[in-house]
Amino acid sequence: MQLRAVGFVAATLLIPSVGMAEFVYTGVEVSYVDVDLDIGNLDVEGDGYRFSGSMQLNDQLFLHGHWEDQNFDFDVDGTELEVGAGFWHSFSNTLDFVATLSYVNQEVESGGFSIDDDGLGLGAGIRTQLTDAFQIEASLQYVNFDEGGSDTGVSILGRYYFTDRFAFMLRSELADDIDTLSLGFRAEF
Hints:
This protein is mainly β and about 190 residues long. It has one helix spanning about 1-15; strands at about 25-40, 40-55, 60-70, 75-90, 95-110, 115-130, 135-145, 150-160, 165-175, 180-189.
């Protein structure tokens, strides 16, 4: 009996509620980012800030981008720029499939030494509304850099909406070369 009750509660929490508003794809985000960078012989930790934005173009397309500034141990600095377009398909008003295509540029420098590389990024995942106030996004990300090979990762993002258009966010991104944990704020329009 207790096992059935636990199963029912778990299923209720995981199945999105019916009747919630559709997702908003226009907004801005500001995040504090904790970064662990491991490229070749370079293994450093640091932190920084990410500024992101997206703009809905029509019922299924949006533009997106972010700029990230990072400061690492041993006087190592990094930046990342990503700009691109995305597509979503709604399975319901609480579950979307989301795909993105992006240009990505990353630069790491320390003193006179610099690594600068760019490439093409692909992403695919889901965005779901678990409750009126809580959303989750989960996606796979792949970037093929010109000189540095490829990087594959997983991104999981949770948003808690304290109003209809404002949310706190927690994101974890685990990739081959870079792992990040970020805490931020989102405003939607």
